[in-house]
């Protein structure tokens, strides 16, 4: 099994984090609306599933990294239509889901611990989604995309809930009849798929880590092995940092090049 001191800085773990983040990012990019029951701008995606599985298999820090990386991957693939505000909200909401679940499961590595962790993660994620939409997303969209007009937002809600949704009742309908059930459904889908598979994934990762873990030659002293391992970790961390920087540059180019070409 991976040594606790190098838990987040070995080649196997980094490769698995990258795999989960890539899958999550692709799933995030290909979200789809459920216009019959939710406003069209609420798009369901299944990126929480690999993020939650990765959290249970690798730990809460790895889960947070997966969520962060999935946002970068999505931005590379699809770009942003919200000037990064929507992605920032999804980042916070995603971390609020996986990190509490991972922290609780780390202390109680049982089925009950997993259930408690995912329940706490679901509550914190849904609560943050409501707060983010109330205080940030709706005011931002209204001011930036609709010139301060309520009409597009209210119109989208009236298509589902009828004329009872007005400017005065918008938040009551939107937060409690759309944002809450939508995000609750998103979390419950991830929970339902993660529960039966996370143990198997965790065991497979541990077996892979045991096979690929560097072996210290018998003739080498403990000090020499420690120095070699430290050099490997420095190289690995440097490569990871370079990849993140390249992803960020890619995101910025993906966003700004169309703007420059448009000018």
SSE-based structural type: mainly alpha
Percent of residues in β-strands: under 5%
What's the average pLDDT? 86
Going by CATH, the architecture would be: Orthogonal Bundle
Overall shape? globular
Count the helices. How many?
A: 9
Number of domains: 1
Radius of gyration (CA) equals 21 Å
Tally of DSSP β-strands: 2
Under the CATH scheme, which class?
Answer: Mainly Alpha
Poorly predicted tracts of residues: 1-8
| Termini gap | 55 Å
Helix content: over 70%
Supply database-style keywords.
globular; 263 residues; 9 helices; mainly alpha; 75% helix; two-stranded antiparallel sheet
Could you walk me through the main structural features you see in this protein, from its secondary elements to its overall organization?
With 263 residues, the chain is an all-alpha fold. The protein has one domain: Arp2/3 complex 21 kDa subunit ARPC3 (Orthogonal Bundle), CATH 1.10.1760. The chain is 75% helix and 2% strand. The protein contains nine helices and two strands. It has a two-stranded antiparallel sheet. Helix 1 packs across helix 3. The longest helix has 41 residues.
Topology (SSEs and partners):
Blueprint: H1 11-29, E1 32-33, E2 43-44, H2 48-58, H3 60-78, H4 85-107, H5 111-144, H6 151-161, H7 170-194, H8 198-212, H9 222-262
Describe the structure in brief.
This protein is mainly alpha-helical. The protein is 75% helix and 2% strand. The radius of gyration is 21 Å and the shape is globular.
């Amino acid at each position: 099994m991976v040594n606790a001191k190098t838990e987040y800085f070995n080649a196997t773990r980094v490769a698995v984090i990258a795999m989960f983040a890539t899958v999550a990012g692709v799933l995030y990019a290909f979200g789809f609306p459920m216009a019959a029951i939710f406003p069209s701008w609420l798009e369901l995606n299944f990126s929480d599933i690999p993020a939650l599985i990765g959290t249970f298999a690798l730990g809460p820090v790895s889960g947070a990294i997966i969520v962060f990386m999935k946002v970068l991957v999505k931005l590379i693939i699809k770009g942003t239509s919200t000037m990064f505000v929507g992605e920032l909200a999804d980042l916070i909401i995603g971390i609020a889901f996986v990190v509490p679940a991972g922290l609780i499961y780390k202390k109680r590595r049982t089925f009950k611990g997993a259930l408690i962790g995912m329940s706490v993660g679901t509550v914190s994620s849904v609560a943050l989604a409501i707060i983010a939409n109330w205080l940030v997303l709706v005011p931002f969209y209204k001011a930036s995309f609709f010139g301060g007009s309520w009409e597009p937002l209210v119109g989208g809600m009236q298509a589902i809930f009828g004329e009872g949704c007005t400017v005065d009742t918008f938040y009551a309908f939107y937060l409690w009849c759309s944002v809450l059930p939508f995000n609750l459904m998103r979390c419950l889908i991830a929970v339902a798929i993660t529960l039966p598979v996370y143990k198997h994934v965790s065991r497979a990762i541990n077996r892979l880590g045991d096979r690929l873990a560097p072996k210290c030659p018998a003739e080498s002293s403990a000090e020499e092995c420690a120095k070699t391992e430290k050099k490997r970790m420095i190289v690995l961390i440097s490569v990871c940092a370079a990849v993140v920087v390249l992803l960020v540059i890619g995101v910025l180019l993906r966003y700004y090049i169309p703007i420059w070409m448009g000018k």
